[in-house]
């Protein structure tokens, strides 16, 4: 009986995955409001917040709360709060799924228990007050997993675009446990990467929200185009999978969507993530430089790269033209 149930579950998961999509059309990029989470139909978190429970998973302190509208929110504290709030807006503006997130510089939780674990470092046990928190709207995950090797994604512009997006934001902590199937309120099922907190730093280091490193990496971020493929210098986790088989056609498709974002929108998203004026100027300039580089490459002005060695604190890799996926 247990075996039959397992088979039935696998069949259902396969059917769900086969009908899922990777990309959702959010509309023209220039028309999106990045102060809020793009294509998020709900309201931002509204106090007062009622404490529900502490979440033990992951590495960052997290709790679950309900707001004044009865919405459930997953609240994360620590170094990932700002980069995840910003990066999720860019991901959603590009048409991919990321949890709808909001950054609150401070606030208060009601009915906080005395026996908090990791979260006790972030929440005052007497007043319930907190600082610098990322509120992520509850989403519905459905059974099943996916990978870059999914047959229905192979050779699609959307998959190539996602690879470029990962590198655009310098997401170094990419891993398959964060790949999920998500059901949207309208009923559509999407392939999703659910964690974008380790972004906006140096791609080959455990780094995030470090504009100096993000900006310094930007001029050497790509070696251009060779034999119809984009050659990227990215040394985050799964770098061999992420950089592989990105065609010029994928690049043009992605640029047509991401290049519509304006400086004002990017700055709005950074400020919504709690960036200071200095951080806003620095990150916006570096991100826009990366987008312009992709745009230049898509128009054939990137030239032909030469192989070069990329040295990091832990590894030395040689960037070459991509090879076909196995």
Protein described:
There is one protein chain. The chain folds into 2 domains: 8-141, no CATH class; 156-178 and 197-319, no CATH class. Helix content is 29%, strand content 21%. It is built from 8 helices and 12 strands. The protein has helices at 2-18, 81-93, 157-168, 211-217, 239-242, 248-258, 263-272, 277-298, and strands spanning 49-55, 62-66, 72-77, 101-110, 129-137, 140-142, 179-183, 189-193, 222-226, 229-232, 308-311, 316-319. The strands form 4 sheets. Strands 1-2-3-5-4 form a 5-stranded mixed β-barrel. A 3-stranded antiparallel sheet has the order 6-7-8, with helices on one face. It has a two-stranded antiparallel sheet with strand order 9-10. Strand 11 and strand 12 (316-319) form a beta hairpin. Helix 6 crosses helix 8. The protein is globular and about 60 Å long. The two termini are 36 Å apart.
Order of helices and strands: HEEEHEEEHEEHEEHHHHEE
Beta strands, count: 12
Query: How many domains make up the 3D coordinates?
Result: 2
Bin the helical content. 25-40%
N-to-C span: 36 Å
The amount of beta strand, in percent, is 15-25%
- Largest sheet, strands/sense/barrel: 5 strands, mixed, barrel
Low-confidence parts: 2-16, 303-326
Number of helices: 8
Q: How would you write the strand order of the largest sheet?
A: 1-2-3-5-4
Give the CA-based shape.
globular
